[in-house]
Amino acid sequence: MIMLLIEKGKRRLTAFSSSGDVLLRCPVALGKSPVGHKRAEGDGRTPEGDYFICLKRDTGRFGCALGVSYPSLADAKQAVQEGRLETSLLPLFEAAEKEQKRPPWGTCLGGEIYIHGGGMERDWTAGCVALADADMQALYPMCQTGDAVRIIP
User: Fold this and answer.
1) Predicted confidence band of residue 100 (pLDDT cuts 50, 70, 90)
2) Of 5, 76, 77, 98, which has the fewest beta carbons less than 10 angstroms from its beta carbon?
């Protein structure tokens, strides 16, 4: 198991081994509106919080990709408190977190947040974390579903 730390302010991803050794450190690009926590589909923000890798894709628009478990149960509970999400959806988020599966991605909170290639020269994604293609090729084989992802401001 590894842990990915994404520091939005530093535009940096660090992959740590279970013993705390740095396995990879690389620059990243974020969503088009990177400041603040993602709250809704289409806001262009990259989420902040504790997540996990919920899926791995070998191929896609930007090559291989790691799915991030946004929105988390905590994100869903906050949205319910604010009246932005139906309470009846909470069991779906609870099950996804408990089973370390992909959470519902079709809600008003958005989803389909990935760590992927495509370049990191500027903030350009819809909320994903983009790496240089070579860095993504190095990161992808290190990661497994269930690995921790922490995204901080």
Assistant:
1) very high
2) 98
Is 152 inside a domain boundary? Answer: no
The two beta strands, 129-130 and 148-152, are unpaired
Q: What share of the chain is helix, strand, coil (3-state, %, to 5)?
A: 20, 30, 50
Number of domains observed in the structure of the chain: 1
* Domain membership flag for residue 9: no
pLDDT tens column, 2-27: 999 999 999 999 999 999 999 999 99
Nearest to 34 by CA among 12, 5, 60, 55: 12
Q: What is the pTM of this model?
A: 0.94
Helix (H) or strand (E) holding 16: strand 12-16
Q: Which domain holds residue 53?
A: 29-145
- Residue 18 located in a structural domain: no
The residue type at 48: E
